[in-house]
Write a structure and sequence with these properties.
The longest helix has 23 residues. This protein has 2 domains: about 110 residues, Formyl transferase, N-terminal domain (Rossmann fold, 3-Layer(aba) Sandwich); about 60 residues, no CATH class. The chain is built from 7 helices and 7 strands, in the order H-E-H-E-H-E-H-E-H-E-H-E-E-H. It is globular, with a radius of gyration of 16 Å. It is α/β, with parallel strands linked by helices. The chain has a 7-stranded mixed sheet with strand order 3-2-1-4-5-6-7, with helices on one face. Strand 2, helix 3 and strand 3 form a beta-alpha-beta unit.
Length: about 200
């Protein structure tokens, strides 16, 4: 893996696509991170499965190409994404609140270069409503995880995790805010770890 990364890194930044479905706050954070000198990535493409994703505005704001892909036909959606990524010479994909599960075939084509951030301490609470589950189960800790993407939901090899204490007064909303703050630190740290 590292030899391949060395070839990719050279002095140029690694062309990266970010996939979103929502507000895009992790996208915005990754764009800011990509602009610092020590960042190994540049963000060259934003893909969303819905035109309602508020995060698409960051494409206009930072002049990054954005594309809305309709997933009604999954196969053709993935084919369109592959064509786009090849044309833009994308070598790395960050999922940031992307609400579709990519196929094994698509993941294989990217040869382990797709990562995701998830708002729980995996393997605990895969999928949705992680904060509600942590509160209901009276967990003492919550957190977030950056992991490699596999065809199984939230099951790939863990790159980095950040654990935070759940306060007795926390509800799912306050916990979500706390975890999100940690996500903004964890995602760049995980990317630096991958390419170091």
């Amino acid at each position: 893996m590292s030899n391949l990364m060395e070839k990719l890194t050279g002095l140029k930044k690694i062309k990266t696509a970010v996939f979103i479905s929502g507000k895009g706050s992790n996208l915005k954070n990754l764009i800011k991170f990509s602009k610092i000198k020590k960042s190994p990535i540049s963000i060259d493409l934003i893909i969303s499965n819905t035109n309602k994703a508020k995060g698409l505005k960051y494409g206009n704001l930072f002049k990054i190409k954005k594309k809305i892909i309709n997933f009604k036909n999954f196969k053709s959606a993935e084919k369109d994404i592959l064509t786009l990524t090849v044309n833009k010479k994308i070598n790395f994909i960050c999922l940031a609140g992307f609400m579709k599960i990519l196929s094994k075939n698509f993941i294989k084509k990217f040869n382990g270069k797709i990562v995701n951030i998830h708002p729980s301490l995996l393997p605990k609470y895969k999928g949705l409503n992680t904060h509600e589950k942590a509160i209901i189960n009276k967990d003492k800790f919550a957190g977030c995880t950056v992991h490699y993407v596999t065809a199984q939901l939230d099951s790939g090899k863990i790159i980095l995790q950040k654990k935070i204490k759940i306060a007795t007064k926390d509800d799912s909303n306050s916990l979500a805010q706390k975890v999100l703050k940690q996500e903004y630190k964890l995602y760049p740290a995980a990317i630096l770890k991958i390419f170091s």
